[in-house]
Write a structure and sequence with these properties.
By secondary structure, the chain is α/β, with parallel strands linked by helices. Helices cover 46% and strands 14% of the residues. The chain is built from nine helices and seven strands, in the order H-E-H-E-H-E-H-E-H-E-H-E-H-H-H-E. A seven-stranded parallel beta sheet has the order 3-2-1-4-5-6-7, sandwiched between helices. Helix 5 links the parallel strand 4 and strand 5. Helix 2 crosses helix 9 and helix 5 runs parallel beside helix 6. The relative contact order is 0.14. It is globular. The longest helix is centred in the middle third of the chain and has 29 residues.
């Protein structure tokens, strides 16, 4: 017996923004959202060519690319306002944009220019997206949902990449606080915490080929196989859909048992 139309269209009529949407987890999520009937998908990124090509491949009649640097609050605000003006609502914000420094910073050798750049994207940018999405939802009376990309690094200490680990702890704290504050408006706020994935960004940061990255991370998980961006996208779909209608403030690990 095939999957019902209800299961196939978990986001029917929904309007969604995906930051960091041009590649990696964001790209996979955009494709999953389109498969499940989203009315409109806004891909926000600073990778213009990749974002435009992705929007065209999904379908330009309901998928749009917008250049947005999340470290610039005015750009985030304008992106949200444009979405609401064009589509009349914003139902889903997937705040996914983030970076990884190439350096392996420890507490003893923190280099604060790199630290500040990482926090500007991973923490300040994440907070700006949550802030302006929530304001749009509250103003329109939309019982929407916000999903942030955290990491397994947001619940564990690390022997290196101290700045990245700190930033992802901050994302989890943001989600927990926002979920308490926005619950009265019917807005759910959750995050996904993946283990390592061989995304273009991660391969560049580790200076390794995709198959090499996959072998490194596969060895650290309990489940056999490789974690893919699609696995995370499916988790985001769950948190963005009515299947998680009474779930908020939750950090959903997608890590093959690494955290256990």
């Amino acid at each position: 017996m095939g999957e019902s139309s209800v299961c196939k269209n978990k986001l029917e009529g929904k309007v969604a923004i995906i930051t960091g949407g041009a590649s990696g987890i964001g790209e996979a999520t955009a494709r999953v959202f389109s498969e499940h009937g989203a009315r409109a998908i806004i891909i926000a990124d600073i990778q213009d060519e990749l974002g435009q090509n992705l929007a065209s491949s999904i379908g330009s009649h309901f998928c749009t690319f917008i250049h947005c640097d999340v470290t610039n609050e005015d750009q985030v605000k304008s992106m949200v306002e444009w979405t609401v003006q064009k589509y009349g609502q914003l139902d889903i914000m997937f705040s996914n944009a983030g970076i990884v420094n190439r350096s392996d910073q420890t507490v003893l050798d923190l280099e604060f220019s790199a630290f500040d750049r990482l926090f500007a994207v991973n923490v300040r940018g994440m907070a700006a997206c949550v802030k302006h999405a929530a304001r749009a939802m509250v103003d329109r009376g939309v019982k929407g949902c916000i999903v942030c990309t955290a990491s397994v690094a947001g619940s564990h200490g690390m022997g290196r990449r101290t700045d990245y680990c700190m930033s992802k702890h901050a994302v989890v704290g943001l989600v927990r606080s926002a979920s308490k504050q926005l619950g009265e408006h019917g807005i759910r706020v959750n995050c996904v915490s993946p283990h390592g994935i061989a995304t273009p960004m991660m391969c560049k940061a580790l200076e390794m080929e995709a198959d090499e990255v996959e072998k490194v991370y596969e060895a650290r998980t309990r489940l056999k196989g490789v974690l893919r961006a699609r696995h995370v996208a499916d988790a985001v779909l769950f948190l963005a859909s009515d299947q998680s209608a009474f779930v908020t403030g939750h950090d959903l690990s997608v890590d093959g048992g690494f955290s256990t």
